[in-house]
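Note to self: keep these together.
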Amino acid sequence: MRPVWPFVILSPGKGTTEGYASKLMRMWALVGAGLFAFFSLTGTSVSAGETADVYLSLYVLGSVPSNRGVSFQGAAISDSKVGNGVGAGIKAGVFPSIARGIIGIELEWYGHGSDITFPLMTGGGTLARTNLWVFNTMANLLVRYPGEVIIPYVGVGAGLSHGVLTSPDIPGRSDTDFETSWTLGHQFLAGVQGKLTNRLFLFGEYKYFSTNYHWTQLALDFRTQYMLAGIGLRF
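Structure:
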């Protein structure tokens, strides 16, 4: 069965990936805190009328992945299916006054459920199945048009992606109930904000995300399109 979205935090895998992932996440947290502090102080020091645009937003998303890119035991599977999914995310952004409110950065965390299904090479119509959970921690560089009411923007991002298999049923493989793959991913995005008040806004966004996951005898070149809708608050 395809998993129903539970917005949970999963523990990292064991071994060397745990140290790498934890260090990278701590690095992003420190970098983000430093950049937010710097841009906030810089924005408020220019003048009383020129401050940094700082915001926090929540959103829901839909994922429409490509059905290509599954490999099992080193062989590419042509008739695989990666299921659509839904999820949610949170992000914080800042557009400093020194960049005239045009160039900014975002830090975001989001996740969603999916599943992988593919036929075994042995034939006989046997299907292999597993649930897939995707969790991404990304940093985005944005360029926007700072309109009065409508604010369009585009951007690129990169960060850490966490692909988790749960309840796999893959004959010919030593399945475990929980298996993780940590890797780097990147994304391209475009969206638009619509102001409701001076502080409250709605937004819609499109993302194209790309990464490669590797588990025991199973790999996935994950490519997906995300459609987002959310609400945000400026500070």
